[in-house]
Design goal:
heterotrimer; A: 148 residues; Heat Shock Protein 90; 5 helices; 5 strands; globular; B: 77 residues; mainly alpha; Arc Repressor Mutant, subunit A; 74% helix; 0% strand; elongated; binds adenosine-5'-diphosphate; binds magnesium ion; nucleotide-binding (chains A, C); kinase (chains A, C); ATP-binding (chains A, C)
Chain lengths: 148, 77, 148
């Protein structure tokens, strides 16, 4: 393990920006491109927002933990909440599926997480909480320029 | 400077370290201007609105003044 | 309590920047000036560096925890290590006192923390660890411009 942190914070929307910044600093050692960083922040943002709005449904009542590990250019991040959980995980993953259409949620959160990362695992127990574990490998700059 | 800015805008592959340095430079200038005009330091929100970036970007960029290597150097010099 | 976070990380120099960043994001809600932000970061930096270089003496062997609370414009931050501890706390606080003169340490860490904050408390047990608790009140902008 090259590095490892745990961040624990109150589930409120103000802290979604905090979580994004902490994760940005955590991957600074990788020196990502602007695009990679912005994709990674989007992934974190979707997962943390889900924990706040679906996990707890109300600002300021619960706790969220983020556990992140880095090994060379691979990051594994778990976003943990102790909220209401997800009854049907494969349904939740489906594009456009949302249980909060009234709040203008798009139902695209998990789809976005999947497309901007290498792996998304969801572990959830109803009324106990949800852990979303995201793996992201950052390609060294030489390789990515070959692809582009 | 114009050339660097264009490069930063056009190319998603630019290293974040470089774009942060660029913003840092702008922050210093904006702070000097603000000090002259208002005779006090700008807050980070004021800088964010002047430079049309987010508060987070201001916080990130001002931190880049000291790179993580500096402590390492202190430790093993 | 307006907000509250806990960060736990490996005691290594790379994470001193991370800790600074996390605390910067945490106080962003107060909307400090760049100068206040930079002073506050210096305080965090001195405390975290102490935990790394004096608490554990070696990179990557121990854990550091930062617990921060915000109430309106007041921040209380504790930096905790489980390292060697401080035998004589009042001596450690003295300007220029250092147990590592050979590493070009200035012995001014605690003096800097004190001058850039409103209160510094040190609680330490030899061979158990050290907790440094810093209180900092941020003056609203109207008042500070009146002073200037
Ligand atoms: N942390 C969570 N706790 C409880 N339910 C969740 C959580 N994350 C996601 N869900 C469920 O999965 C659904 C799909 O999530 P997502 O793809 O992000 O879409 P959206 O957030 O727009 O609804 C949500 O509507 C919600 O029912
Ligand atoms: N977290 C800590 N664990 C053990 N000893 C510490 C810690 N923080 C400070 N000290 C002791 O207090 C002394 C003074 O600290 P400081 O004022 O920061 O000066 P310096 O770090 O330059 O030595 C250190 O030299 C060290 O002996
Ligand atoms: Mg969502
Ligand atoms: Mg010191």
């Amino acid at each position: 393990m090259d590095n490892e942190i745990t961040l624990s914070f109150i589930a409120k929307s103000e802290n979604e920006a905090l979580a994004r910044m902490v994760m940005s600093s955590f991957i600074a050692a990788i020196d990502p491109t602007i695009e990679e960083l912005s994709e990674f922040k989007t992934v974190i943002s979707e997962a943390v927002t889900n924990a706040i709005v679906h996990g707890y449904e109300e600002d300021g009542v619960g706790k969220i933990e983020i556990h992140a590990q880095r090994l060379d250019r691979e990051i594994v991040v778990s976003i943990v909440d102790y909220g209401r959980g997800i009854r049907d995980v494969s349904q939740a993953r489906e594009p456009l599926f949302t249980t909060k259409p009234e709040q203008e949620r798009s139902g695209m959160g998990f789809t976005i997480m999947e497309s901007f990362s290498d792996d998304v695992e969801i572990y959830s127990i109803p009324d106990r909480g949800t852990t979303v574990t995201i793996t992201k490998r950052f390609v060294p700059i030489q390789e990515s320029s070959r692809i582009v | 400077i114009g050339e660097i800015q264009r490069f930063l805008r056009d190319d998603g592959m630019v290293k974040i370290s470089r774009s942060i340095r660029e913003l840092n430079f702008k922050i210093r200038h904006a702070t000097d201007d603000f000090l002259k005009k208002h005779e006090r330091q700008p807050t980070i929100l004021e800088l964010a609105s002047i430079l049309e970036v987010s508060r987070e970007e201001i916080v990130m960029a001002t931190d880049a003044l000291r790179d993580p290597a500096s402590l390492q150097e202190q430790l093993y010099e």
